[in-house]
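Batch queue: ligand-bound targets. Current item pairs a single chain with coenzyme A. No template structures supplied; prediction is de novo from sequence plus SMILES. Inputs echoed for audit trail.
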Amino acid sequence: MLLVEMWPVLGIRVRTRAMELFVPDLDALAVLAGLAAEGIYDPQNQYLPRTPVGGWEDVPPPEAQRRFLRYYWAAFADWRPERWNLMFAANAGGEIVGIQEIGAQHFSVTRTVSTGSWLGRRYQGTGYGKAMREAILHLAFDAFHAERADTAAWATNHASLGVSRALGYQPNGTATRAAEGRRVEQVNLTLRRSDWRGSQDDCTFAGVTPEACEMLGLPPA
Ligand SMILES: CC(C)(COP(=O)(O)OP(=O)(O)OC[C@H]1O[C@@H](n2cnc3c(N)ncnc32)[C@H](O)[C@@H]1OP(=O)(O)O)[C@@H](O)C(=O)NCCC(=O)NCCS
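Prediction returned. Tokens below.
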């Protein structure tokens, strides 16, 4: 039996004109760990507290790479059809540029996904963030038949908020959080299926098989 037959979501791929999302193999993971370790936040930007997801900022190699890998593999170790998070490598023009995540809880009931993403510093600010979010929204709405996609960003994260704004998300309240010992405002955003303007012409999928759908807790087609 092949690994992808044992763990079918490994075979999911999304391709748009600008971006390909795929589940990274070990070589791609090494590239991503390198990008993560180089830092994904601008150290000069004091208004952007780092999201403590993987805790790999501010530690030297190879611990930074290891923390990224631990975060990545933990998502698979924790996988349940009723609660999962799938991390795709984003490939733009033949280069691996960052990570695009999609996750859900009790998807067959909620029909809601949440997304998160980051790009290597050198790839930021050139449209890739929008391209990868657009690709994952195609997967969510066109392949998984989601009704809603949620995301969140610090109120000072203008790039992330810019991606959401450009794709038609609506504000969905705020929350006050602690980050790096500071109080920060988080902006919650939602894109409902009725507000999703994406067109299918531009996007193809692979690997969304009945077996993968079962792992994702998607209702049978
Ligand atoms: C957030 C991130 C993924 C966005 O990707 P990006 O490639 O930098 O953003 P894009 O170039 O695709 O820009 C998307 C939109 O936001 C706008 N935007 C980008 N950076 C901006 C900034 N600093 N200020 C204001 N608007 C900005 C762009 O103009 C564009 O809008 P438009 O299509 O209407 O012109 C990327 O910057 C990143 O990885 N940041 C560090 C990690 C992070 O913050 N992750 C998100 C945590 S919530």
